[in-house]
Amino acid sequence: MKTFTTCWVLLLLAAAPASAQTVVNAYARVTAQSGTGLTLSNLSGTFAAGDEALLIQMQDDVIGANTANTASFGNLGSVRSAGLYERVVLTAASPTSVALAAVPGTTFNYSANTRVQLVSFPDLGAGGNFTTTAALGALAWTGNVGGVLAFRVAGTLTLAHSLTADGRGFRGGSPNPTNGYTACDVTTYVDNGATYPRYGRKGEGIYNDNGAYPVGRGHLLTGGGGGNDTNAGGGGGGNFTAGGLAGPGWNSSAGGCSGSAGGGGGLGLSGSIGASRVLMGGGGGGGQQNDNVATAGGAGGGLIFVRAAVLQTLAGCGGGAIAISANGAAAANAGNDGAGGDGAGGAIVLQVTTYALAGACPLNLSANGAAGGNVNTSSTHGGGGGGGKGAIVLANAATTPNNMSVTINVGQGGANYTGGTVADPGAPSLTTPLFLSAGRSLPVVLTAFAAAPEGPGTRLT
After folding, report:
1. What is the per-residue DSSP string for 77-127?
2. CA-atom Rg of the chain in angstroms
3. CA gap 66, 57 in Å, rounded
4. pTM score, whole prediction
5. What angle do CA 106, 110, 112 make, to 5 degrees?
6. Dihedrals φ, ψ of 320, to 5°?
7. Residue 258: its pLDDT value, please?
8. Are 185 and 228 in contact (CB under 8 A)?
């Protein structure tokens, strides 16, 4: 129920503290490439000559002509290089530039609407074996860098702790900063925020709009749409599958907007994703508010890349299982306003030759979408849309290894009111987002070799 009186509501949000995680990567945005030279900005950490790294197209100029205020706003023009990645070797490094051993074989695109990132790919075992001593995680995506956990072990990797990129992907949209409402609006898909400053903000996805299209219920590629007037929810983020449509919003005569004013779910790109192209989960859209109790959308899951000769777990591990997870983050529940949509699952890429997983310490992989935020009130408003599925790549496994479980689920939609109807979940998939025997996803690059006589032949090293 809406009034024009001012209500002060105190929300006490108690969240369990996140487990401490160690970040092992360095990150930098790549702003330009000339041959083997890369220009860097937004450096986090340190790169050095001799380092291996991953060059990743996080966002690309993929929207094409889909920028008009219609239901097609935010659709895919062409996927271009979004999600492509390549392993590179650095021959020189400074805080503002690096040189590579060879020109990348992948075409990476650089513009104001793109983000290319250089992520270190450290050898944690220094050429031998490595056993974790703490949980490893990714720096949260900042809009320029982060969202990726990547490392290699030449010998045996013993996991005694989790690897996680949960909620480290594309960011969720915020509720409208200007509190208020007019009437139910189901037809505004995009606005620059000047005409409709009271609408929830879109979640982030694989296109960087530089603030040109911040509001309206249309999705922004894999990012969920924001909630429109009145009190509509934010759409769920997308990745392998689409995010869910948010709840419709409030209307005094109809018990909910006639037609949904809720944010559309972020796009699903199952036809483009595979071993050589993986995406962070799209962020959920923000809910619309006029009582200052809407919630923001949840962030998507990030990316995890691991290469090892052997990956093992040992009996007696803490908690009885080890997790590798790139799940979307859930939006908080709302009061008498719209709730945020939730983040889609991210992606996990494992290039492991042999798995040796103890039955008493199984390995659990997950790239799940999160569930949308609920609206805690007695009349219809807008619950958040559920997040879509992420993806998992097991590059050298013909079947799921013994003592490994894989879950790639959608998030459920949030309640539009207490005990009532709910927003849409993330979309299901006709094809599986688990890729087995997917080839050399993290290839070895030949940079030098030596030859020496040996008996009647020649030995190459």
Report:
1. S--TTTTBEEEEEEEEE-SSEEEESS--SS----STT-EEEEEE--BTTTT
2. 23
3. 21
4. 0.91
5. 155
6. 80, 0
7. 84
8. yes
